[in-house]
Design brief:
185 residues, alpha+beta, Aminopeptidase, seven-stranded mixed sheet, 5 helices, 7 strands, 25% strand, globular
């Protein structure tokens, strides 16, 4: 189940991000979330603005994943280099997806949840986050170019735009589409 994060979820959210940072470091992604990113103040703000979500394990209700989602313009996507966006229509942005590594299919769940709210989605990840790049592509996103985040570092930008109302999510199952590891965007 996916729901808005609450202040009481903050301790487990911080643990999930810490776990994801360690996983990324072990897998060659040394700089994406270095220095304790995302900071607690950012997460608290996102909770207050109802832009941070948690994924609960179905059987136990235990929080096992977290992500940011908002509909509307995202400042980091205003300029794209080495490519172009598929559409200028209103979109939803997915950021900071992370898991505790215990549940399979986290990105698949996140993308399906977000697609139910808006069929046009954007997402990005670090060039060293190869696992997430594969998962994003496995969920039907297309690589569109390079964007720059607040600190000026580049990210590979992806977009997905459903063309028909009744098409099912194109997320694939399997290792790369499952996001069974605590990876981040």
């Amino acid at each position: 189940m996916i729901r808005h994060a609450e202040r009481t979820d903050l301790p487990v959210i911080l643990e999930i991000y810490a776990h994801a940072r360690k996983f990324m470091e072990r897998n060659g992604n040394l700089t994406q979330w270095a220095g304790g990113f995302p900071p607690q103040s950012m997460l608290s703000d996102d909770i207050a603005q109802r832009r941070l979500y948690v994924v609960e394990e179905e059987m136990s209700g235990r929080v096992c994943g977290v992500f940011f989602f908002a509909i509307g313009p995202d400042e980091t996507y205003e300029v794209i280099e080495q490519g172009k966006w598929l559409s200028d229509r209103e979109y939803g942005t997915i950021h900071r997806v992370a898991s505790d590594g215990t549940v399979h299919g986290l990105l698949k769940q996140v993308a399906a949840y977000c697609e139910q709210r808006i069929a046009h989605l954007r997402i990005d990840t670090h060039k060293d986050n190869v696992i997430m790049q594969r998962a994003i592509l496995g969920c039907g996103f297309q690589k569109c170019g390079v964007i720059y985040v607040e600190d000026g570092s580049p990210r590979i930008a992806y977009e997905k735009e459903e063309k028909t109302l009744y098409r099912r999510s194109s997320c694939k199952t399997g290792w790369f589409g499952s996001c069974s590891s605590p990876i981040g965007l």
